[in-house]
Design a protein that fits this description.
single chain; five-stranded mixed beta sheet; Dna Ligase, domain 1; Rossmann fold; 6 domains; Ribosomal Protein S5, domain 2; topoisomerase; isomerase; metal-binding
C-alpha cells in the first residue's frame, strides 16, 4: 500500500511529507499535505471508490477535528475550522467493510453507515500528534490569516461627507469635508449621556462636533477572533463614522472623517473600563492613531461636587475626594456634598457649563513610547494574567489620576485610573475570608440589620431600600438578584440561607433561574442569621462612609467563617475563586479543637440535602495541600434494562439533565445509536427521580463502563482555587478549608475580647446611669430637689452641687472603629424597632435604648457629637418619680452588678463557645423543621405514586381480555388462543414486552395507563379503609379510602409499572 501511495506523492525523501498507519487487519491509511484542495484515493474491499464516501469521512473527520482544535487552542484568533484543515489534506485509504453498499452500480461512492462497517478505526493519538507537527499546518495557518484579514476588511469606512445607515449618530456638519481634521467625534456611554452632550453642544455648535452613543462596553478585541470583531455592530459603526481602514498606517488624520476622537463616560470605575476598551481597540488594529498627537481625548465631568455657601469644589475621582475630606476632618461636615453617579445626574445647565469651559474638561492622551503600549496590552491580553496579578498586587489605596493636568500618558491612565476598575471588579467578584460576603451582599445584610427585618418585605422594595441607604451605585435588578441568591435553600445553593424565602426563589430544577420576579416575592432575616452575626459585634466593626452617610462595615465578623458554610464562586480581574460548601458542624468542631489546643481534622465538602457520595481522590503531588473530590449522584439498575436515578451531582440541575437525557433518546448525530429508549420522571422541585429504559443491546456497555460514568453522574470538586481577601484587604490563596479557619480563628478571638470589654463598658455606663436616675428620683420624692416652676439652668446648678454625673441622653453600645452613626444593632431611628414593654414606654429612653443595643455608637440625635448633659434626668416622665420606680431601678442596679461580675470572670473563648452552642441548638431545631418539610413532600409523592400504580393495575386488569385478543395471531409475536390470558401474565412471562406494551397502548386508546376502554371486567375491586399503620408505611396521610386491586402474586411485577407513574 505504501508503494502505491508513493506513485502519487513521489519518493519519500523528495516528495511532500506523509504519515502511514495501520489499524487492525482491516484499515490502513496515509495522510499527506495537498496544495489547497482536498484529495482522496480510497479502496473498499479492493474496489476503488473514486468519489469517496462514508469511510473517507469517517477518518477525515477524526483528523480535521483534532488538528483544528489544537491549532485554535494555540492560536486563539485563528478561528480555524475543520473544513480549512480538510482543504489541505490528501488521504489514502484501504479498508475492508462487511456487506458494503454503494450509491450506484459503478461503486464509486460508499454510502453504508459507519455503525454497520463491522469494525472500527480509531486513529491513535501518537499518529495525530505526529500529523499536528507536519507542514500541512503552515498552509492552514496561512489560509486562516488570509481569511481573517479579509473578514476584518469588511465594513471598512471611507471619507465622505454624507453618512447614512447609523440612526443614532449625530454627525458633525463638517465631518468628511475639507475641515474634517478639525472635527471631533464624541463617544458617549449610553443615550442619556448623548443627550447631555447634545445639550452642551448648544454652546460650542454642531459644525465640528459629532456624537455617537455606545451600548454598554466595547468588545475586548485583544484576543477576539476576526468573525467576532466583524460582527460587532458597535465596532463596525465606529469604523464607518471615522472612516477607518483595516491594516492602514496613519501618519495624519486627513483621510479620516474626524480628526479627533473624544470619550465621554461616567467618572466611575465602569466608565474607566470603557475608556480602556476603546484604547485597546485602537492599539490592537490602529496603533498608529494613538501615536498621533491630539487624536484621542477624554471629556471629564465631576463625580462629586461639594458646596458651601457660594464656594463649589469639584472632584473627578473618589480617591481625590476622600483625600480632601480626610484633610478637612470635622470641618467637612459643613459642606453639602452631591455624588454624580453618571452623566445622567448632571442637568442641561451643567452640561452647558462643562462645554462652555471645555479646555478644563478636555484631556489629551499622549504617547510616550513602548511603555504605553506595554501597559495597554498587559491590562487586556489574556496571555498576561500573571502580569496583571503582579500589577494588582502592587495597588496602593488612595491611588488616583490627577485631572488637573491637560495631558495624560496612556501608561498613567492604565496604572492610576484603569487599575481602580480592576481592583473594584476584583472586590465585587472575590469575597472576604471573614464573612464570606461580597460588597453587594454585605450592603443587603447591613440594611436588613438596620431595619431589624423580622417581617416580610417585597424583594423589590428591599432592593430599593438597600440602594438608598447603603450608597449602592449599580442597577437594582442586580441587587434583587443578589437578594434572591442569599435566600435560596435548594440543594447546591446555600447550606444556611441568611434570608428567608417567602415565595418562589428558585429550585434545583433550573438552579435558581426559575425564581419569580422580585416584585412578587418576599423575604426577611432568617431565624439563624443573628445567631451567626451577633448583635453585640455590630459596634466593633469599621463602618464605611460614603456620600456623608455611614454604610456597611468593611467586613462583618460572624462566629463561623461563612465562606465555608455557603461556599463562593467568582471571576475577577487576574483571579477567580471556587470554594465548596462545608458542614457547619464540622466547622464548629474544628474551632473548638483550636480552642482546646488540638489540631484540626480534615473537612470535606458537604451540601445540605445532597444524597449522593463525596469521595476524596488520592493526591498525586507529594507537597500539594489542596484536595480533590469526586461528587457522584445515585443510580442503580432496577431491572434488566432499567436504571433508576435518584440523585444528581451537586449543581447539575434537573432540567439540564433532562435535556441531556433527551439527546440520548434521539442523538443529534444521525450516525450515533441511541442509548435510551425512554424515560419517566417522578421528582419534585426538591428531589430527583428518573426511571430510564436503556436500549437492551447496549445495557452490557452501560454496566461495563458503570452506570455513573455512562450517565454522567459524577463531577469533580477541588480546593485548589480558594482565593479570598483577608482582613487587610490582600488577596490570598488558601489550599484547604482548615487554612481558612486557621486565619479566621485569632482575629475572631481578638474580637471576642473586644466584645467583652465593650460589654463591660456598656454595663458599667448603664449602672452609672441607673444610680444617677435612682438618686435623682429619691431627691425629688424627698423634696431635696425641686424641679417644678424653676429654670433649667438653676436645676442644673443644683444637680452639679449634689454630684450628679453629666451623661448623654441616650447611651448606646461602645463606640466602634466606625465612629458615630454605626449602631449596636444598627437600626433606623424609630423604624421597625422592637416596641418597649407596656408600662415602660415613658421611662428613660436611655435605659430602653441601652437594653436594646442602642441607636448609635456615638449617641442619639438629641446629643451633639456625644455631648454630656443632664437631659437624661430632666426628660424623665412624671410616672418615673415614684417609690416603685426607685425600687425597680435598685433591682436593675443589682442586676447590672451581677452582669459586671459575670463579664469580669468570663473569657473570650468561653463567650465564643457559648455562641457556638447556642447556634448549634438553633441550627438543630431549624434543620429538623427543614427535614420535616422534605419528609412531608416525600410522603406526598409516595402517596401520589401509590395511587398512580393502583390506577395502572386496575387499567391493566380491566383491559386484559381486549389486549389478549389483540395479541392472538401476531406472526412471530406472542400467541394466545385463550381470551382469559391477562396482559400482566404476558409481561411477567417475558414474551416481547416492548411489543406487548405498544399494543396495550393502542387498545387503551392513547397514553400509557390512561385507558378508558376495557370497562369493568376481571378487576375484583373492593373498597377498604386502610389502617393507620399501613398508611404510615406507604406514606399515606390517613382518613382516605383507597381502591385496591385484588391480584394474584404472579399477576403484575410492580417494577414494570414505573413507566406509567408519571401520568398520574
Amino acid at each position: 500500500f505504501s508503494d502505491y501511495v508513493d506513485l502519487f506523492l513521489g519518493p519519500k525523501d523528495s516528495g511532500p511529507p506523509r504519515l502511514y498507519e495501520r489499524v487492525g487487519d482491516r484499515w490502513e491509511f496515509c495522510v499527506a499535505a495537498s496544495e489547497g484542495q482536498f484529495q482522496q484515493v480510497s479502496f473498499v474491499n479492493a474496489i476503488c471508490t473514486s468519489n469517496g464516501g462514508t469511510h473517507v469521512n469517517y477518518l477525515v473527520d477524526q483528523v480535521t477535528k483534532f488538528v483544528a482544535g489544537r491549532l485554535n487552542k494555540k492560536h486563539k484568533n485563528a478561528n480555524i475550522k475543520p473544513g480549512m484543515v480538510k482543504s489541505h489534506m490528501w488521504i489514502f485509504i484501504n479498508c475492508y467493510i462487511e456487506n458494503p453498499k454503494f450509491d450506484t452500480q459503478t461503486k464509486e461512492r460508499l454510502n453504508l453507515g459507519t455503525m454497520k462497517f463491522g469494525s472500527t478505526c480509531e486513529i491513535p493519538d501518537t499518529f495525530l500528534e505526529k500529523l499536528y507537527k507536519m507542514g500541512v499546518l503552515d498552509s492552514v495557518l496561512g489560509l486562516a490569516e488570509f481569511k481573517n484579514q479579509k473578514e476584518l476588511k469588511k465594513g471598512d469606512g471611507v471619507k465622505r461627507s454624507r453618512l447614512t445607515g447609523i440612526p443614532k449618530l449625530d454627525d458633525a456638519n463638517d465631518a468628511g469635508g475639507r475641515n474634517s481634521s478639525q472635527c471631533t467625534l464624541i463617544l458617549t456611554e449610553g443615550d442619556s449621556a448623548k443627550t447631555l452632550a447634545i445639550s452642551g453642544l448648544g454652546v460650542v455648535g454642531r459644525n465640528q462636533y459629532g456624537v455617537f452613543p455606545l451600548r454598554g462596553k466595547l468588545l475586548n478585541v485583544r484576543d477576539a477572533n476576526a468573525s467576532m470583531v466583524s460582527k460587532n455592530a458597535e465596532i463596525q459603526s465606529i469604523k464607518q463614522i471615522l472612516g477607518l481602514q483595516y491594516g492602514k498606517v496613519y501618519e495624519d488624520t486627513r483621510s479620516l472623517r474626524y480628526g479627533h476622537l473624544m470619550i465621554m463616560t461616567d467618572q466611575d470605575h465602569d466608565g474607566s473600563h470603557i475608556k480602556g476598551l476603546i484604547m485597546n481597540y485602537l492599539h490592537t488594529f490602529y496603533p498608529s492613531l494613538l501615536k498621533l498627537p491630539g487624536f484621542l481625548l477624554e471629556f471629564v465631568t465631576p463625580i462629586v461636587k461639594a458646596r458651601k455657601g457660594k464656594q463649589t469644589l469639584v472632584f473627578f475621582t473618589m480617591p481625590e475626594y476622600d483625600a480632601w475630606k480626610e484633610q478637612l476632618g470635622e470641618a467637612a461636615r459643613g459642606w453639602d456634598v452631591r455624588y454624580y453617579k453618571g452623566l445622567g445626574t448632571s442637568t442641561s445647565e451643567e452640561a452647558k457649563q462643562y462645554f462652555g469651559d471645555i479646555p478644563r474638561h478636555r484631556k489629551t492622551f499622549v504617547w510616550h513610547g513602548d511603555p504605553d503600549g506595554e501597559a495597554i496590552e498587559m491590562a487586556f491580553s489574556k496571555k498576561r494574567v500573571d502580569d496583571r496579578k503582579t500589577w494588582l498586587s502592587r495597588f496602593e489605596p488612595g491611588t488616583f489620576l490627577d485631572h488637573s493636568v491637560d495631558r495624560i500618558s496612556y501608561a498613567d491612565f492604565i496604572n492610576k485610573e484603569m487599575v481602580l476598575f480592576s481592583r473594584a471588579d476584583l472586590e465585587r467578584s472575590i469575597p472576604s475570608m471573614l464573612d464570606g460576603l461580597k460588597p453587594g451582599q454585605r450592603k443587603i445584610l447591613f440594611c436588613c440589620f438596620k431595619r431589624n427585618l423580622k417581617k416580610d418585605i417585597k424583594v423589590a422594595q428591599l432592593a430599593a431600600s438597600v440602594a438608598e441607604h447603603s450608597a449602592y451605585h449599580h442597577g437594582e435588578t442586580s441587587l434583587a438578584s443578589t437578594i434572591v441568591g442569599l435566600a435560596q435553600d435548594f440543594v447546591g445553593s446555600n447550606n444556611i440561607n441568611l434570608l428567608h424565602p417567602s415565595g418562589m426563589f428558585g429550585t434545583r430544577l433550573q438552579g435558581g433561574k426559575d425564581a419569580a420576579s422580585a416584585r412578587y416575592i418576599y423575604t426577611r432575616l432568617s431565624s439563624l442569621t443573628r445567631f451567626l452575626f451577633h448583635e453585640d459585634d455590630d459596634v466593633l466593626l469599621a463602618y464605611l462612609n460614603e456620600e456623608g452617610q455611614f454604610i456597611e462595615p468593611e467586613w462583618y465578623l460572624p462566629i463561623l467563617p461563612m465562606v465555608l458554610v455557603n461556599g463562593a464562586d467568582g471571576i475577577g480581574t487576574g483571579w477567580s475563586t471556587s470554594i465548596p460548601n462545608f458542614n457547619p458542624r464540622d466547622i464548629v468542631d474544628n474551632i473548638k479543637r483550636l480552642m482546646a489546643g488540638e489540631p484540626q481534622q480534615p473537612m470535606h465538602p458537604w451540601y445540605r440535602g445532597f444524597r449522593g457520595r463525596m469521595v476524596e481522590l488520592p493526591t498525586k503531588d507529594v507537597g500539594k495541600e489542596s484536595r480533590a473530590y469526586v461528587c457522584t449522584g445515585t443510580a442503580h439498575v432496577t431491572e434488566e434494562n432499567r436504571v433508576e436515578i435518584t440523585e444528581l451531582p451537586v449543581r447539575r440541575w434537573t432540567q439540564d439533565y433532562k435535556e441531556w437525557l433527551e439527546s440520548l433518546v434521539k442523538p443529534d448525530n444521525k450516525n450515533e445509536k441511541p442509548l435510551v429508549v425512554d424515560y419517566s420522571e417522578h421528582h419534585s422541585d426538591t428531589n430527583v427521580h428518573f426511571d430510564v429504559v436503556v436500549v437492551p443491546e447496549r445495557m452490557p456497555e452501560v454496566l461495563e463502563a458503570t452506570v455513573e460514568t455512562k450517565f454522567k453522574l459524577a463531577n469533580k470538586i477541588n480546593t485548589s482555587n480558594m482565593m479570598l481577601f483577608d482582613a487587610k484587604g490582600i488577596i490570598k490563596h488558601f489550599p484547604t478549608p482548615e487554612h481558612i479557619i486557621e486565619d479566621f480563628f485569632p482575629l475572631r478571638l481578638e474580637y471576642y475580647e473586644r466584645r467583652r470589654q465593650a460589654l463591660l463598658k456598656a454595663v458599667r455606663a448603664k449602672y452609672q446611669r441607673i444610680l444617677n436616675c435612682a438618686r435623682f428620683i429619691q431627691f425629688v420624692v424627698d423634696g431635696k430637689l425641686t424641679v417644678n416652676r424653676r429654670k433649667k439652668a438653676e436645676i442644673e446648678v443644683d444637680l452639679e452641687r449634689f454630684g450628679f454625673d453629666r451623661l448623654s441622653k441616650t447611651v448606646g453600645g461602645p463606640a466602634g472603629k466606625g465612629g458615630s452613626g454605626a449602631g449596636a444593632g444598627g437600626r433606623y431611628s424609630g423604624e421597625e424597632e422592637e416596641k418597649e414593654e407596656e408600662g415602660e414606654a415613658d421611662d428613660s429612653s436611655a435605659l430602653a435604648a441601652t437594653s436594646k443595643g442602642g441607636k448609635g455608637a456615638g449617641g442619639s440625635k438629641h446629643s451633639t457629637n456625644g455631648g454630656l448633659s443632664y437631659d437624661y434626668l430632666l426628660s424623665m416622665s412624671i410616672y418615673s418619680l415614684t417609690e416603685e420606680k426607685i425600687a425597680a431601678l435598685e433591682r436593675d442596679a443589682e442586676e447590672m452588678l451581677k452582669q459586671v461580675a459575670a463579664l469580669e470572670k468570663t473569657s473570650a473563648p468561653v463567650m465564643w463557645e457559648k455562641d457556638l452552642d447556642n447556634f448549634l441548638a438553633a441550627y438543630h431545631q431549624w434543620e429538623e423543621g427543614e427535614e420535616a418539610k422534605v419528609a412531608d413532600t416525600m410522603r406526598s409523592q409516595m402517596a401520589a405514586r401509590g395511587k398512580s400504580k393502583a390506577v395502572t393495575k386496575k387499567a391493566a386488569a380491566s383491559s386484559s381480555r381486549a389486549t389478549a385478543s389483540t395479541l392472538v395471531g401476531l406472526p412471530g409475536k406472542v400467541k394466545s388462543s385463550s381470551s382469559s390470558t391477562s396482559y400482566a401474565s404476558v409481561v411477567a412471562g417475558g414474551a416481547q414486552p416492548a411489543v406487548v406494551k405498544a399494543v396495550a397502548v393502542k387498545s387503551n386508546g392513547g397514553r400509557k395507563g390512561k385507558g378508558d376502554g376495557g370497562g369493568g371486567g376481571g378487576g375484583g375491586r373492593k373498597k377498604a379503609s386502610k389502617s393507620k399503620k399501613s398508611m404510615e408505611d406507604d406514606g399515606s396521610s390517613g382518613d382516605e379510602e383507597f381502591d385496591e386491586v385484588d391480584l394474584d402474586d404472579d399477576d403484575v411485577d410492580d417494577d414494570n409499572d414505573n413507566d406509567d407513574d408519571n401520568d398520574d
